[in-house]
């Protein structure tokens, strides 16, 4: 038997509530900059870390937890080794709600990282994040906590 606990955290927060944008390759690096309003020469950011309305799983957190409980396959190796804990998966929710480029940013091994990625890859489309009433790409870091129960 096992238990799955789900939480949500933002990948990064901008200064004074402003969203952060990633330029170039789409990775966290020195190319990250705070988005300032009003600059005519300024390009729209590729990916926001914070949006006015954050992306959401269809049906909310309760539906997300139910989905994960239904689809989760606790890896035999993790059960055998009694490995449990939190796997952080980061991905981008695009303007249509598709989940792009899921990556484990903090894992546990023993098959739990692969299972967390599998779960994110089979999730239904999310409700996209909004900035100024327009859908935008938003980076999301999703903690998935695995606990094996005796």
Automatic annotation (TrEMBL):
It is a single-pass membrane protein. The keyword Cytoplasm does not apply. Keywords: Cell inner membrane, Cell membrane, Membrane, Protein transport, Transmembrane, Transmembrane helix, Transport. It is found in: Cell inner membrane. SUPFAM superfamilies: TolA/TonB C-terminal domain. The keyword Cell inner membrane applies. Its main location: membrane. InterPro entries: TonB-dependent_transducer, TonB/TolA_C, TonB_C. GO terms for cellular component: plasma membrane protein complex. Residues 59-150 form the TonB C-terminal domain. Pfam families: TonB_C. PROSITE patterns: TONB_CTD. One of its GO terms (molecular function) is energy transducer activity. It comes from the Bacteria. One of its GO terms (biological process) is protein transport. Belongs to the TonB family. This is TonB C-terminal domain-containing protein. It comes from Hymenobacter edaphi.
């Amino acid at each position: 038997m096992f238990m799955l606990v789900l939480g949500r955290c933002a990948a990064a927060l901008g200064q004074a509530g402003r969203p952060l944008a990633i330029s170039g390759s789409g990775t966290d690096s020195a190319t990250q900059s705070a988005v300032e309003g009003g600059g005519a020469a300024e390009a729209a950011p590729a990916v926001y870390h914070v949006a006015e309305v954050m992306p959401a799983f269809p049906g909310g957190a309760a539906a997300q937890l139910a989905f994960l409980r239904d689809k989760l396959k606790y890896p035999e190796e993790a059960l055998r080794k009694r490995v449990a804990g939190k796997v952080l998966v980061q991905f981008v929710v695009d303007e249509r709600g598709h989940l792009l480029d899921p990556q484990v940013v903090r894992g546990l091994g023993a098959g739990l990282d692969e299972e967390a990625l599998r779960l994110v890859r089979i999730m239904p489309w999310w409700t996209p994040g909004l900035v100024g009433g327009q859908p935008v790409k938003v980076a999301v870091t999703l903690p998935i906590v695995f606990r094996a129960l005796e």
